[in-house]
Amino acid sequence: MNYSTVLRKKSFPGQKHNQAINLLVYGCEIQKIASGNKFEKLFIYLSHEISYHLVYIINQYTNYIDLRKIRFITDDIRDTKKFTDDKSVLLQIFVNEECWYLKFANQTLKELWWQGLQYFYTKAKEDLKEKLQIQLMAWEIFTKFDEDRDGFLNKEEQQAFLNWIKMVYPDKNLIETKCIQSSFQNKLEFKQFEEINKLLYEQSILINLNKMYLNSENLLTEQDFKKFINTAQRKQQTDGFFGFPMTADKFYDFLFSQQNSIFEMGNSDEMTKPLSHYYINSSHNTYLTKDQLSGDSSVGQYVIALLNGCRCFELDCWDSNSDKNPVIYHGFTLTSKILFEDVIMALEKFGFMFSSYPIILSLELHCDFDQQEVLGQIMRTQFKDELYIYEQGLTVLPSPEKLKRKFLIKSSGILEESYNLHQNNQVIRKNMMNLENTKLQNTIQLIQIDQDPEPCLIKEIAQKQRINNKALKNLNYENKQKQFIRHDAICDFKMTGDQVDMVIHSSMNVKHHPQFLSCISLFNSPFEFNNKKRTIWNISSLSEDKVDQIFKERKVKEIQNHLNNSLVRIYPSGLRINSSNFDPMPSFILGAQIIALNFQTKDEPMLINQARFQQNLGCGYVLKPKYLTEGLDDINNFEFQKKLITIQIISCQLFLLNTKNTVNSFVTVKVKGNKIDENGQELQTNIQYNNGLNPQFDSNYSKINFEIKDVDQAIFIFKVFNKQDDNKCTIIGQYALPYKNMRQGYRAIPLKDENLLVMEYCYIFAQITIQ
User: Fold this and answer.
1) Burial 693-705 (b: 16+ CB within 10 A, else e)
2) Burial degree of 230 (CB within 10 A; 0-12, 13-18, 19+)
3) I want to staple 620 with a disulfide (CB 3.0 to 4.6 A). Which of 30, 136, 311, 380 is the partner?
4) Within 13 Å, how many C-alpha atoms sit on residue 767's CB side?
5) Same domain, 244 and 289
């Protein structure tokens, strides 16, 4: 296996070193996969101005890859449906949330390019250690407007810079009169521009802190730095981030840095409790890149989910029409297909690279008897000893520690003889005849039970939701030979399995193949905890709607107690055709272990999920609160752990270099968690008009006290908005933070964009006090 990450590097022969460097410096032509599995040519080279930008030109359009955002590289590509030719000339690069497939002229060129990329990646990381944020920001702005690349800003380039400043900075006189006009005649060099940039981002809070802690020589001594850490930051130790004495610029850099981030990792969780005592980072329809109607399916999505800490994956398994290789896709839709074997091989190779804790594979079974055998053979062959076989005689589930480097297969199946399908088919036919005359409301009720609706009903749902998609017209809903019937969901409407229960054709008598059955360790079962036949190896699946019903019927405490020793998976409603996500917080509070979200959809629920699983070193498992595993008699018992958190939003540091609109910024803060904490607690600062660089907020409108009782569940959500001229508000940046990982003092809150990607040089600056 060949791969390269921040932690592991592929070695290359030394004699090729110079060739590899030149290939990146001077550039080369390669191909990148585009839509429809077609390749398009691009020219790619290392930026001569910004050492960590890899510039590429495609169809006369120029863009760049930030080397710092490369998360994973491999040439071990498992996507047979995409590539039928020689995969030895392919390279797979994961940049942020994107999966890039690059095709080279030959294998030698690929190896050289990879070596050069690795060299400059490492070099950029080393070089940036010595650079201050304010310097890097200044250089990126300067390079943006130095269009002729002569190392100066001429009159036209200066004017372009001024036009941008007018949209994002309120004091234009400062720029035009005091900075630019007094600093140059015809050309502006970088050193002069760097001083201007410092003035742009100067903030009153920094001036005040400098006065408090810097000496007469404008330097911060080690003793005064410790004083700042121990008093203002309420931290009893210092880390060797910088040499002393520290300059004002370095102090600024420290304040707006990851070292001073509001997030504190804390201690790792105990990993020897039963599996049912943990939240497990889980994805839904893992294979999809977009929506579940016509989106592309990709093996790369499983690797991206792994990079994001996912430990429970969904695989919708279907018969292959052309051969005996089962495929994965969203059935009866236009989503593309990938091979089941490719996914299994990718998970086996990369599954435990980023976390050694167990992986659960949720198999939605739509395969006939023969292809079930193929599924079993593939899993047995690939996973070998890593395939977990459940142990008889256990009264509690094994712990994540005991299950390290193990795959647990979740699917339909029974240990005894399979159902008498011939008898059940009679009931199925009767129910299907009644179903044709059922009103849409009943249809929706059925879909809430089974999130993957019957193909003949998809069109009705789409019309109900006013979905205008030409793809619907291309689907053959009348093809009787391809319509399968989920007998469990239809025969018993009270059953709440998530479409993964055994799928059969109405005219077939199908059993589970022993080869497939022998791989299963978690068996789907109805949500009936009083069933005496239920074992620790039975797992139930509930729609998000069922969770809402549990809260409405006040059965939360009863369910929480059951989930001490039983697993449950929560999945999105079948009405979410656009792959939107539900709020995971009620499911967290319920104690559900597997809360399956669409990782490809970047919305607030996904932001909350990321915050939850940022805990415990990001390993994909988080120990549930004690009140869920040990029980509390009454919600008033939260009173004893009540905390008062005072948050004052002081300012923002924003780097909106590509904005084309005026920025009127403000910040909101709210709490997601138990309803006793969410009620009415929210902050909104005043609006700073025409300021997209360093907005500073009025203390009369930017301070709030949050009273938190359920400290284990509380997650703070920070958002920076832009109020546009039409009074619409768009998100500039956002961040979510569990209370238990919050640090006190003057803290930088790193922002993520609308795609939940970290924004360079963008922070909220706040003061946090906890009582």
Assistant:
1) bbbbbeeeebbbe
2) middle
3) 311
4) 12
5) no
* Nearest of 400, 375, 362, 365 to residue 284 by alpha carbon: 362
Lowest mean pLDDT among 12-21, 209-218, 332-341: 12-21
Cβ distance 527 to 568 under 8 Å? yes
434 part of a folded domain: no
Which of these, 52, 56, 29, lies nearest to 113 by C-alpha position? 29
pLDDT digits (tens, 9 = 90+) for 580-619: 999 999 999 999 999 999 999 999 999 999 999 999 999 9
Who contacts 716 (Cβ-Cβ below 8 Å, separation ≥6)?
A: 647, 669, 670, 671, 706, 736, 737, 738, 739, 742
pLDDT digit string, tens, across residues 237-295: 555 556 789 999 999 999 998 889 999 988 899 999 999 999 999 999 999 988 777 77
Cα gap 750→752, rounded to integer Å = 7
C-alpha 404, offset from chain centre: 23
What does pTM read for this prediction?
0.86
Residues 543 and 520 in one domain: yes
Q: What is the DSSP string of 349-367?
A: HHTTTS--S-EEEEEEEE-
Q: Before 358, cis peptide (omega within 30)?
A: no
Pairing of the two strands 729-738 and 312-318? unpaired
How far apart are alpha carbons 254 and 213 in whole angstroms?
14
Q: Count Cα atoms within 13 angstroms, Cβ side, for 485.
A: 24
At 359-396, the pLDDT tens digits run 999 999 999 989 999 999 999 999 999 999 988 889 99
Q: What is the DSSP letter of 175?
A: I
> What 8-state DSSP symbol labels residue 387?
B
Q: Measured between alpha carbons, how far is residue 353 from residues 1, 43, 380, 387, 460 in Å?
A: 12, 32, 20, 16, 44
| Residue in 75, 82, 79 with CA at minimum distance from that of residue 33 | 82
Q: Structural domain tally of the chain?
A: 4
Judge contact between 674 and 710, C-beta under 8 A.
yes
Here the CATH number for the domain that contains residue 496 is: 3.20.20.190
Find the domain containing 243 and state its range: 133-256
